[in-house]
Amino acid sequence: MKKKRLLLIAAVISIIAAGLLLYGRNRRAAGVEYFTSNVTEGPLRNVVNATGVVQTVVTVQVGSQVSGQVLELYADFNTVVKRGQLLAKLDSRNFESQAQNSRANVAAVQARVRSAEADLKTQAANVLSSKANLEAARVARDNAANQFKRAMELSAKGLLPQSEYDNAQASAESAKAKYDQASASLEQVQAQGSQSVAQLEQVKAQLQQAQADLDRAMLNLEYCNIYSPVDGVVISRNIDVGQTIASSLQAPTLFSIANDLSRMQVNASIDEADIGNISSAEHVQFTVDAYPNEIFPATIAEIRLSPQTVQNVVTYSVILSIDNSERKLRPGMTANIVLTVEERDKVVKAPNGALRYTPPGETRPEPPRPQATLTGEENIPSASETSTPPAPPSRLAPGQRWDPADKIRFVAPKRRTDRAGLVWVLDAEKKPAARSVVVGITDGSTTEVISGDLKPGDAVVIGDSTQGPAATTPAQRGGFAFGPPGGGGGGGRGPF
After folding, report:
1. Alpha helices, H only, 85-161
2. Residues 409, 258: Cα–Cα separation, whole Å
């Protein structure tokens, strides 16, 4: 009996608690104030904002390969110069003395060459003389040998006195010794001739070395005159008359020359989250602080593959080609860049807060997932088929031999243009009711509504008094991934 009583009391308490909970919930729901915003109609752009620096396409740093004091300057800031034009002169007296010393050394070695050539001719004459002496010795030797042979025959018959026989024998031996001596003398003279040839080659090598030293001295003397390597405008001068230039392992920069100010470029830093949406075909505009009310067009000339990492933020350099024929843009200006990724002329737009909002106590249902539509062709086209022709490139500076057509160009990426979303509108009882929609691109504040039960002028809930009008907690997002289709960070319209 006691146990049944306890169970009855517990059941009564549970019913009372449930009723109180339901009453409090209804009371709180009745007291919630909802914040709404109207669905609008108009143009919409998905853009990527960036900043960059206006630069010259080719800037040549003119330096000095020799050290010396600056005597004269022929160019200043903003001076228009031509290739080969004299810009500055250095003190050349030290290099002139070195050149004179090298000339004297060359003259001395040339004299030694002539002396060696004369010695070689003398040795050639000695060789001829030695050959003649050798021939005379051979004739005398053969004659003495013949006479000694006849003396031997006569002596054997007893017709020749012994004294004459002895004389004939001595004459033959003497003639043979003289021939051997003449032969050894010829070999000696020939060896001296070979030595003279080697000495001549050595002196000629010394002459080449002396001539190379003279050429180096003359080259250093020419380096005292600083010439412009390109046509352009002097944008920086880092020296003055009387200043001493010390050139060691690195040549000091004297002038900076912009090759062509009518064609310039902007080096824009694009975040890694946005770089996948960028191709050579994007529409680009930018402004500079010097002309805040003027919009400058640009063309993507190059998307560089080298990343830059600063404080764990990865960016890529995108080079924009611009026409500066009016000379308004100057090097170093900060450009506020807007790259239009996608654009719609007239669409129904819902505020992004409505796509993130979930009423209190509600669970966001999983919206149906429509078939994703991809822009562009299904097959990845070649760069030549999709890339738009770049702006006319500036003339390459002297010595630049690459072909700009060999550089890689990125095709327009495939972009997802529609996704499922969910918004809430107030019904007749002023309570939020869910409506499924299909959304497209976004500009960071509003999102395109491709299809769904929404029309311009409808009020959608973007917040309530319990959450605030701009609540964006993960629980309220309900798994809806907000952002421009295909990634990116189209955060508004930028500076214009």
Report:
1. 93-156
2. 26
30-56+260-477 CATH fold = Elongation Factor Tu (Ef-tu); domain 3 (2.40.30)
CA distance readout (Å), 90 to 69, 216, 285, 466: 5, 17, 46, 79
- Does 404 score more than 80 pLDDT? no
Q: Do 59 and 259 meet the contact criterion of CB atoms below 8 Å apart?
A: yes
The answer to whether domain 30-56+260-477 and domain 61-91+225-258 are alike in fold is no
Task: Tell me the average pLDDT across 208-218.
Answer: 94
- The whole-angstrom separation of Cα 62 and Cα 226 is 8
For residue range 229-254, list pLDDT tens digits in order.
988 999 999 999 999 998 877 778 89
pLDDT of residue 482: 35
Helix (H) or strand (E) holding 355: helix 352-356
Of residues 259 and 69, more confidently modeled: 69
Which of the 8 DSSP states describes residue 374?
B
- Answer yes or no: are the C-beta atoms of 89 and 225 closer than 8 Å: yes
What was the pLDDT predicted at 12? 67
Q: What residues does each domain of the chain span?
A: 30-56+260-477, 61-91+225-258, 94-221
- CB within 8 Å of 390: residues ≥ 6 apart: 280, 299, 300, 301, 321
Written as one string, the DSSP assignment of 434-471 is EEEEEEEEE-SSEEEEEEES--TT-EEEEEETTTBTT-
CATH class of this structure's domain 94-221: mainly alpha
Residue 103 phi, psi dihedral angles, 5° rounding = -65, -45
Q: Which of left, alpha, beta for 340 (phi over 0: left; psi -120 to 50: alpha)?
A: beta
The model's pLDDT over 117-164, given as tens digits with 9 standing for 90+, comes to 888 888 888 889 888 988 888 888 888 888 888 888 888 877 788 888
- Fold (topology level) of 61-91+225-258: OB fold (Dihydrolipoamide Acetyltransferase, E2P) (2.40.50)
The CA–CA distances, whole Å, from 424 to 29, 435, 448, 456, 481 equal 16, 6, 16, 15, 17
Average confidence (pLDDT) over 97-111: 94
